Amino acid sequence: MRDHAAKSGLRLERGPFRRRGKPVTIHWRDRPLTAIEGETVAAALIAAGIKAFRSSRDDRPHGFYCGMGVCNECIVDIDGRGGERSCMTAVQDGMKVEPHQHGGGLQALEALGPTPSQQPEETPFDCAVIGAGPAGLAAATEVAFAGASVIVLDERSAPGGQYLKPLSPSHEFSAGPSDRQFRERERAVSEAIRAGAEIRTDAMVWFARRDETKFRLGIYGKDGESRVVARTLVLAQGAREKPWHVPGWTLPGVMTTGAAQTLARSYRVAPGHRIVVAGNGPLNLQVAAELLAGGANVVAVAEAARLTTPSKIGALLRATIHAPALIAAGARYRTILARKGVPLVEGAVVTAIEGRENVEKIRLTRTNGAGRDIVFETDAVCLGYGFDPSDEIARQLGVDLVAAPNGNGLVISRDDDGWTGVPGLFVAGDGAAIEGAAAARGTGALAGMAAAHYLDHAPDEVRQTTARRVRDRARKFQAALWTLFSPAKRPEPTKDTIICRCEDITHGQLEDAVERGARDIGTLKRMTRVGMGRCQGRYCSAHVAAMLGAEHPKEARFMPQAPTKPLPIGAIAREKTEWKGHREVAPPKLPITADRDAPRIDIEVELAIIGGGILGVSTALAAAGSGLDVAVMERGNINSGASGGNAGSLHVQLLSYDFGERAQAGGGPALSALPLQRDAVNYWAELEQRLDADFERSVKGGLMVAETEEDLRFLEEKAASERALGIDTRVIDSSELRSLAPNIQDGFAGAAFCSQEGKVNPLIATHILADAARAAGARIEERAGVLAIEEDRDGYLLTTARGLVRCGKLVIAGGGWSAATGELLGLDLPVKGAPLQMIVTEPAPPLIDQLLAHARRRLTLKQARNGNLIIGGGWSATLDPLLKRTIVDMASLEGNAWVACRTLPAVRGLRMIRSWAAMNVNIDGAPLIGPVPGRRNLWVAAMANGYTLGPMMGMELASMICSGEVPARLRPFTLDRFNRST
């Protein structure tokens, strides 16, 4: 990745500003650069003409994009700390900055922050407000004015948000704030403080949960992690700019208009030498005018709407009536462009951005299709095509989304005062719906008053009336404004257009996955990795949902996960008491629905299988290959349950809590299943070869590390028991451990090494097997959950969400939901749900080849092919009674992070980019497979190590069904072992 810094001089010198910060020296690739104290690393690099900040998996350069800490495109390595957001990190004298390579180019990962010394206390407030923009400051002012305690939490270094962004400490006003927005910021901040609100900046809320009475927030900042508990919560997180998916939009030098404005207003830096501003809406005119006023060279402004047509006169008049000052400002911006000779190209959208390692040209196409494309040479493109609400925390807390009244995207469901329907939870500003800054002030004030009223503080009627008037007037203006700036129709992306810029996923790859059967956003995510990067799908989910034709708002976004943004794992690593066994639960009864356009089914087959996970599709593959007419009935989508939520470990040796006194049922059942697990790992290899597939399988052994001599004695006993069953496990000393895994914590006594363990990628493997099953003749019916089962002498009649299925033979393979399915037949199956959770880090340099576990701690850790570390080990998730779904547990996150950091210290130099919870299976430590006693042609299959065992046990089950016989080695694993009527 080469630098593009031949030209410099991008600092804006005009206007009523003067430098305040002193010059400091930072080093970019060992080259000294002069920066200004108080500015960000991103601003300093761009001022020096450097645009490419990181490289992608396929070595494409990426650079500064959103400017607000959301996209993570501007990450760099600073003083040995990998993946720091340059737009959120202030320069320091002597700082060493390197471009960030995908997977991490650092040989040694420095810890990203302080190690927690103790459990943080929860600081109580009556109300917490997330977001210190116009809405958040207004809400906090009203809550405090009513007499309640309130804290405002904002990730940035100073309050104001995107709209009221402050001038950075690197500059100061020469004679007071220079324009209306700077003055309004000073007023809003001072009003909130005078009212009694506490404003805490540098405070990223990464975790939010609600119990019966309070909201609990996990917060991360420069001083580490802290907690806040509040009786009410106001979400005022603002919005982010929508992506514009055209070829070249990920090139360095392409950024959002808001990012360009942040550079110019806060840091007095121009985004380039030849700037094109393009998009849809008034912000683009404002930013272009501000850049020109600062001395930047704007070569063109492109507006998708046609503003000067007779049909827009009425909208212009209405907008002028409701906000004459804003319309006057817009006219002033146009005058500035005209005076500077900058062309304003109306009715044109960006259809391509060209360049090799930096933007070089931009191509515009008329929206009416007339004329030839318009091309400008440029080294900086600012794109502003509208906004999306920042709704991630609201969705974590169970708030519904609804279609926006104007049909432009999704908004948060709420009442007239911002109440979401969740007790104590309110939303305001553009984080609820895109209505503009003036409306945000009104909705913020009303949400604050509603929160105060929830806390039994009566609202001031005069203030309430004033806030409603402000909001209503602003909404009328906004409606007229968006009639004036009618939204642009997006160009169709080419197959090579990148949609997910974090993972470099193209439109063509997504189309291929849809053709292979992806029908929902979660399945498409698992099949392609779209939305799995640092931005967590913020810039690709809307496109993916549109591709799939998602009609229900809940199906139009990726599931919100903790952390809301990448979080240093070490920040939450705290030792926890580890429990025996799993937390058993009855899995929630999930709604069973069918796709509106899915064909109705009324079929008769020889064999029906209930459950479309790894076990169900593997059984179908083997049964169809044996000549059976088979159908799989799946409630949701293939691989959407525990199989898709699996980490992909191929276990052969026992985990520490499956042996000895800590083990379920004394450990005997789990131990007896080890030969099956050994053979199952071999069967994965056979399948891969037979199907000519790539499961991303890797068998480089498993290490269970011992910290002490006592741990080693435990491993010796465990290994001896495993070897007696034909498992290749041996205990190695510290020297050999260091040779096999040099990044393991120094001083560990040794490990048990099992050469037969490994991993596969469950995101792709189940789909490969499902495709093979279909090719063999099996039917796989998705969104066909079973509602009822009737048994007669001819077999079984299944009533599903999509119709009727008659079969002579039936298999229950529903994972944690198998017992619920059994109840439809009057069965009491000994299968419980066990909610477990996993952590995924950002991509890292090669750290560990083996499957890693711990002799007396709960840990499984592996490194995926793309560099992510996948961390688990049986840490329990929780079943949220309010959300009625499985969610991650804060204590489990902390404990799992602590064990991972203790075992592999480099983990402290990584960020957690997502976590997830899934419903695993709990029986007695061993698999359950075979016929149901007393029932004709009915079989059940469920197992805790289901992903390891799935393909082979599916083959075995199909053989049983065809032959009517249970092989001798599987007889110990049938229902007969429970000695009770089923």
From TrEMBL:
Q: Which SUPFAM superfamilies does the record associate with it?
A: 2Fe-2S ferredoxin-like, FAD/NAD(P)-binding domain
- Gene3D superfamilies per record: 2Fe-2S iron-sulphur cluster binding domain, sarcosine oxidase, alpha subunit, N-terminal domain, BFD-like [2Fe-2S]-binding domain, D-Amino Acid Oxidase, subunit A, domain 2, FAD/NAD(P)-binding domain
Q: Give the span(s) annotated as Disordered.
A: 163-182
What domain of life does the UniProt record list for this protein's source? Bacteria
Q: Domain named 2Fe-2S ferredoxin-type: which ranges?
A: 22-103
UniProtKB keywords: Oxidoreductase
* Alphabetized GO MF terms: iron-sulfur cluster binding; oxidoreductase activity
Matches recorded under InterPro entries: 2Fe-2S-bd_N, 2Fe-2S_ferredoxin-like_sf, 2Fe-2S_ferredoxin-type, BFD-like_2Fe2S-bd_dom, BFD-like_2Fe2S-bd_dom_sf, FAD-dep_OxRdtase, FAD/NAD-bd_sf, FAD/NAD-binding_dom
Name any one Pfam family assigned in the record: Fer2_4
What the entry lists under PANTHER family is as follows: ANAEROBIC GLYCEROL-3-PHOSPHATE DEHYDROGENASE SUBUNIT B
This chain belongs to the protein called: FAD-dependent oxidoreductase
Source species, please? Oricola thermophila
